[in-house]
Amino acid sequence: MIKLLIVDDEQIEREGMKAILDRAFSNLLIKEASNGHLAIEIASSFKPHIVLMDIQMPGINGLEAIEQILKQNLQTKFVMVTAFDTFHYVQSALKLGAKDYLLKPSKISEIVKTVGKVLKDIEDERKLQEERNMREKLLQKTLTLVEKDVVTQLLFDHVHDVHLNMLMEMLDIRETNSYFVMNVIVPPGMEHLYSKIKEKVRSKKVGWMGALYDGQLPIIIFKDAQQSYRAQAISIAKDILTIGKQEQKEDLFIGIGNECSSLSE
Question: Residue 254 in 3-state DSSP?
Answer without folding.
Answer: strand
